[in-house]
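STRUCTURE:
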C-alpha cells in the first residue's frame, strides 16, 4: 500500500489549480444512464472514485472514454441494471445509479452500502422516496431490489436535506409520470449542477437550489454536455493549508460556493483577496481559535471539518468544532493526537486546546477528508510524518502531493 511521506515545517507559496468537483461529477455520471446517446463531461477529476464510477457504468453496459479530463459516456447500450457489492462497498456514491436505473428499466438491483469509518450512513431516505414514487423495495442477500412498472410523481419530504437522497430521487422522478415535489431538498451546489445537467438532457426541474424542488416528469431524455464545477472542498483544504503555511493563490474556484469557509478563515486572522475566479490567502502569524458548527449548504461543510480541526490544533487558544451533519466523523482525532495535538471528542464535538507545535509521526488515514487533515498536520509538524492507507485520499483529491510539491511542500509518495 502506498504511503505519503512529509517533511514538515516548510512554508508554502504559489498557485494551485482546483480540479472539478468529485461530488458533482459522480451523480452526473450516474445521470448519463438516463440519456439514449453520448454524454460529454469535461473538467472531470482523475480520482479513484471517478474510475470506480466508470467501472460501474461499464458493468451496467455504458461505453466510457476518459482522457485529459474529458469523459464521454454512451448509454445507448445499457442493459444490466445492477450495482455489485465489490464496487458499492468501495464507494457509497455507487448507490446513485439506483434512481436512473429504476427509471429506465423499472427494476434495479443494488448492493446495500455497508457502514463506513464515520458511522452507519443509512439509505432509508432514498428507499422511502422510491416507495413514494411507486416502487416496491425488497432486501435480498445484501442487495436492494427496487421494482416499478410505472413510476408516478409524488410529494416527498425528507427529515434531513440529504444530498444523496435528493440526487437519487431526482434521477428517478425525471421520468416518472406527473409532478414530484421534493421538500427539504439539499441545496448543495453539486445538486444544483445535477439539476442543470438533467434539464440539459430534457428534464423539467424547477425550484433548483431551493428547499422545494419540483419535477414534471417527461417521456424520455437525451444526452447532454456539461463542464464540472470547481471542487469547493479541495479549495477549502488548500485555503486551510495556506492559512497555516503561506500565501497561496487558488485558480478555478467559485467563491460563491465558499462564503462560509472564507468568513471563518478571516476570523482566524487570515486575509483573503478575490480576483475573478481566483482566491489568494494571506496568512497571519497567529491563528485565532474559531469554533465551527457544520451544517448543510450554505453552512460550513462537514467535508472540511477534519481539516479545520487540524488547523485549530495549533491555534492560539481553545476551540470547539461540532459536526451536525455526521455525528461520528472523528476518526482523524486520535491520529492528530499522535502528532501532538490536544483534542478530546465528546458526542459530536471536538474540544481542541491549541498547542505551540506538532511533531511528525506515523499516522493512518481512515477516510478521504481525514487523510487531508493528516496531510495538513504533517505539513505543519516538525520532522517526518508518514501517512499510511493513502488510497483514501486518492479517492477524492487529484494529484495532491504534486499540487503541494509545486508550492514548496516536501511531500512524496512511496509505493509499496
Ligand atoms: C454527500 C457527500 C459527502 C458529504 C455529505 C454531506 C457525495 C458523493 N458525498 O454524502 O462528501 O459529506 O453529502 O454533505 O456527494 N441520512 C439518513 N438517511 C439517508 C441519507 C442520509 O439518515 O437515507 C443522514 C446521514 O446519516 C447524515 C445526513 O443524512 O447524517 C446527511 O447525509 P447525506 O447528505 O445523504 O450525505 P451523502 O449524500 O451520503
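SEQUENCE:
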Amino acid at each position: 500500500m502506498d504511503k505519503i511521506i512529509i517533511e514538515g515545517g516548510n512554508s508554502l507559496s504559489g498557485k494551485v489549480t482546483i480540479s472539478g468537483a468529485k461530488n458533482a461529477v459522480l451523480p452526473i455520471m450516474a445521470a448519463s444512464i438516463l440519456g439514449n446517446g453520448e454524454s460529454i463531461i469535461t473538467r472531470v477529476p482523475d480520482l479513484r472514485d471517478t474510475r470506480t464510477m466508470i467501472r460501474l457504468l461499464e458493468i451496467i453496459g455504458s461505453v466510457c472514454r476518459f482522457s485529459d479530463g474529458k469523459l464521454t459516456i454512451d448509454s445507448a447500450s445499457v442493459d444490466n441494471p445492477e450495482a455489485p457489492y465489490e464496487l458499492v462497498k468501495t464507494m457509497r456514491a455507487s448507490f446513485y445509479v439506483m434512481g436512473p436505473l429504476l427509471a429506465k428499466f423499472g427494476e434495479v438491483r443494488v448492493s446495500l452500502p455497508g457502514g463506513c469509518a464515520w458511522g452507519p450512513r443509512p439509505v432509508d431516505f432514498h428507499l422511502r422516496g422510491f416507495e413514494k414514487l411507486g416502487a416496491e423495495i425488497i432486501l435480498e442477500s445484501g442487495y436492494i431490489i427496487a421494482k416499478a412498472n410505472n413510476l408516478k410523481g409524488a410529494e416527498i419530504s425528507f427529515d434531513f436535506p440529504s444530498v444523496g437522497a435528493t440526487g437519487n430521487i431526482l434521477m428517478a422522478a425525471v421520468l416518472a409520470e406527473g409532478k414530484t415535489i421534493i421538500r427539504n431538498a439539499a441545496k448543495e451546489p453539486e445538486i444544483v449542477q445535477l439539476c442543470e445537467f438533467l434539464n440539459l438532457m430534457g428534464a423539467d426541474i424547477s425550484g433548483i437550489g431551493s428547499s422545494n424542488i419540483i419535477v414534471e416528469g417527461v417521456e424520455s431524455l437525451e444526452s447532454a454536455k456539461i463542464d464540472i464545477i470547481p471542487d469547493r472542498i479541495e479549495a477549502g483544504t488548500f485555503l486551510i493549508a495556506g492559512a497555516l503555511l503561506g500565501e497561496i493563490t487558488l485558480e478555478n474556484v467559485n467563491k460563491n460556493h465558499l462564503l462560509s469557509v472564507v468568513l471563518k478563515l478571516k476570523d482566524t486572522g487570515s486575509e483573503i483577496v478575490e480576483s475573478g475566479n481566483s482566491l489568494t490567502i494571506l496568512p497571519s502569524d497567529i491563528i485565532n481559535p474559531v469554533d465551527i458548527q457544520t451544517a448543510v449548504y450554505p453552512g460550513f461543510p462537514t467535508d472540511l471539518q477534519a481539516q479545520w480541526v487540524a488547523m485549530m490544533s495549533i491555534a492560539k487558544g481553545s476551540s470547539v468544532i461540532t459536526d451536525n451533519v455526521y455525528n461520528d466523523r472523528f476518526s482523524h482525532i486520535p491520529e492528530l493526537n499522535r502528532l501532538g495535538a490536544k483534542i478530546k471528542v465528546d458526542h459530536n464535538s471536538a474540544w481542541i486546546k491549541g498547542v505551540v507545535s506538532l511533531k511528525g509521526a506515523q499516522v493512518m488515514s481512515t477516510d478521504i477528508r481525514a487523510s487531508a487533515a493528516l496531510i495538513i498536520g504533517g505539513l505543519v509538524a516538525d520532522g517526518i510524518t508518514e501517512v499510511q492507507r493513502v488510497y483514501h485520499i486518492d479517492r477524492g483529491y487529484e494529484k495532491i502531493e504534486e499540487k503541494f510539491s509545486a508550492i514548496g511542500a516536501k511531500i512524496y509518495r512511496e509505493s509499496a
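REMARK: The chain has a mean pLDDT of 96.
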